[in-house]
Write a structure and sequence with these properties.
The chain is of the alpha+beta class. 36% of the residues lie in helices and 17% in strands. It contains five helices and five strands. The strands form two sheets. A three-stranded antiparallel sheet has the order 3-2-4. The protein has a two-stranded antiparallel ribbon with strand order 1-5. The chain is elongated and about 60 Å long.
Length: 144
């Protein structure tokens, strides 16, 4: 119930260098409460579901692709339905197409991976005033 109540959370855009531990330390004054941040965002693997630092991202892209600036895919803006973006990291108004489609724009490997990282950046942070309630409820559930 707590995880689904929007009024208990603030949204946060993860910045370069933020870790679950550093955010828990800033917000809850206890880095060991990093699991609260991971749990409330359904993050099971902090290494693959948390955005990479800039340096780690560069290593990742260069290891994954022979040419990070090569074309990953082509896309166009939809002609019906949602046709505009809602924020800088929203690409739901775009559809992937073949390169031969009129007006198709290339998306590089780097751009594609940046978009994937951006999807991971917006998280929910439990408001500090509800932390003790969550911890009490969690302990009750674990000790049953």
């Amino acid at each position: 119930k707590v995880k689904n109540s929007a009024m208990l959370y603030d949204t946060y855009d993860i910045k370069n260098g933020d870790t679950p531990e550093s955010l828990a330390d800033q917000l809850y004054n206890n880095a060991q409460l990093h699991w609260v941040i991971l749990l409330t965002n359904n993050i099971m693997d902090r290494y693959y579901e948390w955005p990479l630092s800039d340096a780690d991202f560069e290593r990742f892209v260069n290891d994954k692709y022979d040419n990070a600036d090569a074309v990953h895919h082509y896309e166009i803006t939809k002609s019906s339905g949602k046709t505009t973006q809602n924020g800088p990291e929203d690409y739901s108004h775009k559809i992937e197409v073949n390169s031969t489609v009129s007006g198709a724009e290339a998306v590089t490997n780097r751009q594609y991976e940046e978009r994937e990282q951006d999807k991971k950046r917006k998280i929910k942070l439990l408001n500090r005033q509800f932390l003790n309630s969550l911890l009490d409820e969690f302990e009750n559930l674990v000790n049953r």
